[in-house]
Amino acid sequence: MKYYDKLVFELSRPGRKGYELPADNYGNNALQSLPADLLRRDEAQLPEVSELDVVRHYTNLSMKNFGVDTGFYPLGSCTMKYNPKINEEVAADPAFTAIHPLQDAKSTQGALELYYNLQRALSEIAGLHEFTLNPYAGAHGELTGLMVMRAYHIANGDEKRTKVIVPDSAHGTNPASAMVAGLQVVEVKSKPNGSIDVEDLKPLLDDTVAGIMMTNPNTLGMFETEIMEIASLVHEAGGLLYYDGANLNPLLGKVRPGDMGFDIMHINLHKTFSTPHGGGGPGSGPVGVVEKLARFLPNPKVVKNADGSFGVSTGSESLGSVSTFFGNFGVMMRAYAYILTLGKENIRNVGPLATLNANYIKESLKDDYLLPIEGACKHEFVFDGLKDKSTGVTTLNVAKRLLDYGFHAPTIYFPLLFHESMMIEPTETESLETLDEFIEVMHKVAREARETPDAVKDAPLTTLVRKLDETGAAKNPVLTYRQYLAGESK
Ligand SMILES: *Cc1c(COP(=O)(O)O)cnc(C)c1O
Questions:
Q1: Closest protein CA for atom 15 of ligand 1
Q2: Residue 28: inside a domain
Q3: In degrees to the nearest 10, what's the CA dihedral of 33, 39, 41, 47?
Q4: How far is the CA of 285 from the centre of ligand 1 (A)?
Q5: How far does the centroid of ligand 1 lie from the alpha carbon of residue 414, in Å?
Q6: Residue from 171, 180, 220 to probe ligand 1 pocket by mutation (most atoms less than 8 Å from CB)
């Protein structure tokens, strides 16, 4: 074991320094210009470390992490595709990063043009009239979209429409967003193949329905073939259709949510349009709407003036503002760079390749893993654990064992429709060799489960931190390293 493989929590040594700021330029003068009541009363408890300590600490930490730049990351429902590095360079361009949202429109024409053009590109891709790029994430987009839905019904004098229909297979953010928006959630059942049960939907459609939230392909990666019928039933009842765009990847360039009858949608730019994510950020959840809903979109809006210049406007019927200024601009820059890099011709290949890769893995592994829903999937699919349940090896055990072989685990125990869910999404960016390696390792784990099940249950065996006590971590959380050290010395 190398010395840096140990978990070292305390590197601070009293008096050790990395940098010192010149006292006159930044120290004393700056302090004098601050009002006394804003000054810190106690010394900040910062670690005292040298520059080299800091560099080694963070570099070593980064090597302990698993990311899409380290290895295959088939985390279903998350679209962990590879993000081309050129997008990072674009997003770091000081011409954009050094501007301030309070500058006047004249001095930020380039940024406004980028916002406007990206908004137009997403409208084209989605088949919707207009987008706001202001929301910060998918869930924030859901909330914004539902607020648009509510504003529309209220503008029509239809105050009683407060019911949102959500399938039992939906992502947890869907019902949560509806609740936060002050709407009531009503569940519609899925059929055994995961698609919405139209017969169960019909009796729910009355004059209190605000709309339905769906995703297509659905949470099991299957295309909802009855979507046109569902759309006309909901519309006839006076409701609107909300599309959760987290599963847009397989449709790119092939099918547009607007053409399927959806009125409102969000897109997770950090999933479908190339921003490194995980660990909670950064994200962006643009919301697109059909023409009749555009006036309700949040402020501020970016508009193109008659003379071709770009400006900022605020609509009087807008639901208000949902973000500080225009949202996460860096994520928009990555998305715009990604869309322009692929172009119209190549963006068409994203969906079919993601779909091909998912089906290739599914068909290659279904002899060892239980496939509850047969047939062609889209960009992801779900296994219900190992086929052979007699060994007692669970989905959690398989997921941990994959870490030993250098693969990130799939999404596990979601969706809730199956006991041992294992949701695999390879994305379009993986090579055939990587897919084959993953398939080989998954077969190997299945073999180990039969031959040496106890070893698999002990996995991971080769990682720095072995299997975590998740219940203990939830019941007795140790939230700071000082607390950890105190506990250790007891
Ligand atoms: C990721 C995801 C969301 C939420 O998006 P965030 O950007 O994480 O807020 C919603 N629905 C589905 C199906 C998702 O996969």
A1: 77
A2: yes
A3: -100
A4: 9
A5: 13
A6: 171
CB 209 within 8 A of CB 160: no
DSSP secondary structure, 273-308, as one string = TT----TT------EEE-GGGGGGSPBPEEEE-TTS
CA distance 138 to 270: 9
The preferred substitution site among 244, 267, 414 for testing ligand 1, maximizing ligand atoms within 8 Å of CB, is: 244
**Closest ligand 1 atom, residue 285 Cα:** 7
Task: Please indicate, yes or no, whether residues 154 and 112 belong to a single structural domain of this protein.
Answer: yes
181 with 319, same domain: the answer is yes
**278 & 421 share domain:** no
What residue has token string 């990206």? 118
Instruction: Looking at the structure, tell me whether residues 166 and 260 fall in a common domain.
Output: yes
Ligand 1 close to Cβ of residue 166 (< 6 A): no
CB 244 near ligand 1, within 6 Å: yes
- C-beta of 425 in contact with ligand 1 (< 6 A): no
Q: Is residue 54 part of a domain?
A: yes
How do 421-424 and 411-412 pair as beta strands? antiparallel
Domain count, the chain: 3
Burial 402-436 (b: 16+ CB within 10 A, else e): bbebebbbbbbbbbebbebbbbbbbbbbbeeebbe
Range of 459's domain?
A: 351-473
Of all helices (H) and strands (E), which one includes residue 85? Answer: helix 85-91
Token pair of 229 as six digits: 């019928």
CB 315 within 8 A of CB 297: yes
Give distance in angstroms: CA of 339 to centre of ligand 1: 21
- Residue 138, ligand 1, Cβ within 6 A: yes
Q: Which one-letter amino acid corresponds to residue 235?
A: H
379 lines ligand 1 (CB under 6 A): no
Full pLDDT tens readout for the chain, 490 residues: 454 455 566 788 999 988 877 766 655 666 677 888 888 888 888 889 999 999 988 888 888 888 888 899 999 999 999 999 999 999 999 999 999 989 999 999 999 999 999 999 999 999 999 999 999 999 999 999 999 999 999 999 999 999 999 998 899 999 999 999 999 999 999 888 789 999 999 999 999 999 999 999 998 999 999 999 999 999 999 999 999 999 999 999 899 999 999 999 999 999 999 988 877 678 999 999 999 999 999 999 999 999 999 999 999 999 999 999 999 999 999 999 999 999 999 999 999 999 999 999 999 999 999 999 999 999 999 999 999 999 999 999 999 999 999 999 999 999 888 999 999 999 999 999 999 999 999 999 999 999 999 999 999 998 888 888 889 889 988 888 778 777 764 4
